[in-house]
Design a protein that fits this description.
The chain has about 325 residues and is α/β, with parallel strands linked by helices. It folds into two domains: about 1-175 and about 245-315, Alpha/Beta hydrolase fold, catalytic domain (Rossmann fold, 3-Layer(aba) Sandwich); about 190-240, no CATH class. Helix content is about 35%, strand content about 20%. It has eleven helices and twelve strands. The protein has helices at about 15-35, 65-70, 95-100, 115-130, 140-150, 215-220, 230-235, 245, 275-280, 295-300, 300-315; strands spanning about 1-5, 40-45, 50-55, 80-85, 105-110, 135-140, 155-165, 195-200, 205-215, 240, 260-265, 285-290. The chain has a seven-stranded parallel beta sheet, sandwiched between helices. It has a three-stranded antiparallel beta sheet with strand order 8-9-10. A two-stranded antiparallel sheet has the order 2-3. It is globular, with a radius of gyration of 18 Å. The two termini are about 20 Å apart.
Length: about 325
């Protein structure tokens, strides 16, 4: 399944009238996605035209159709869990938290430690184990690699949503999955990073380096759709991202047994858009693409809300 959205960059906070319009649109969209397998629709929200075309899902994983339709028990809304990626924190989800909460969903943002893939996944999994009922699990960027491991074997995680994210196969790491000579578009390289030696219990030797995107390059790599001031704030508040998180290989992927949705950021300079498409197609995800920079949950929150609600609809 593939669809394409073209929309102007969003904003973190909307005026009340625009919020009501957005919430109405999303509520109607949820009902449409829940009642139809094939949808061809066009809508206008906040003065921005959007087009969506979906075809039959190209899922080949055994039992995927049954898992998609089983979903949550009728009338039970899933908890939506949001996992941020590298250099970020949960405040990046502010717009989505606001909208989804106003629509009546329980939303749980999890602070991703950014220390190492296995330890971060264990941390997220421990939080998931405290949630009863169905879960729709969402990951941005490195958060996608984390949910791929954290959801493994968890029967109440009914859908995985990847948002400009890594979806690794077993044995892959962020450092190895997308060779730069094959998957172009990323502007991220070691010359654009500040490197700080630190202790890290998640690292094999107990020592590691934390990585930061240099402020001069942050907007180009991470936040190209927002204002220079907003990009400056994102750069100034970025959290340290341990090198172990980049290099540690993934375990068996949860997406091999749990239906997945993938929102691809076509103007991304952090993760190659072609690489995102490769990973999405490999896991037979329901794919949507939007012209967005890497911080898509900040610059295009409505597109993120839409794909989450599609996954939610499929759990019922």
């Amino acid at each position: 399944m593939f669809s394409m959205i073209n929309r102007a960059p969003g904003r973190r906070l909307l005026q009340p009238a625009r919020r009501r319009t957005q919430l109405l649109f999303l509520a109607v969209a949820t009902a449409l996605f829940a009642s139809a397998t094939l949808v061809a629709s066009a809508a206008t929200t906040d003065g921005v035209a959007t087009g969506t075309t979906t075809g039959a899902a190209a899922r080949t994983t055994t039992g995927a159709t049954a898992r998609t339709t089983t979903g949550a028990a009728a009338g039970v809304r899933p908890t939506i869990v949001l996992v941020h990626g590298g250099w970020a924190d949960s405040s990046g989800w502010d717009a989505e938290i606001t909208t989804l909460t106003e629509l009546g969903y329980t939303v749980v943002p999890i602070a991703n430690p950014l220390r190492g893939l296995s330890s971060d996944s264990d941390y997220v999994r421990a939080r998931l184990e405290q949630i009863s009922g169905p879960i729709v699990l969402v990951g941005h960027s490195y958060g996608g690699a984390v949910i791929t491991n954290a959801a493994r074997g968890m029967s109440n995680v009914r859908a995985l949503v990847y948002v400009a994210a890594f979806s690794l196969a077993e044995g892959e790491s962020l450092a190895t999955v997308l060779p730069a000579d094959r998957y172009t578009g990323s502007h991220l390289d070691v010359t654009k990073l500040d490197v700080v030696p630190v202790p890290n219990p998640a690292a094999p030797s107990g020592r590691d380096v934390d990585l930061y995107i240099k402020p001069a390059y942050f907007r180009d790599i991470f936040a190209g759709d927002v204002s220079p001031h907003e990009a400056m704030l994102e750069a100034a508040t970025q959290r340290p991202f341990a090198n172990t998180a980049f290099t540690e290989p993934s375990g068996a992927p949860a997406w091999s047994t749990i239906p997945s949705w993938d929102l691809i950021s076509l103007d991304d300079h952090a993760i190659s858009p072609a690489g995102q498409m490769f990973m999405a197609e490999r896991m037979h995800a329901h794919i949507t693409a939007v012209h967005s920079a890497h911080d898509i949950m900040i610059s295009h929150p409505t597109a993120v809300d839409q794909i989450i609600l599609r996954a939610v609809a499929a759990t019922n």
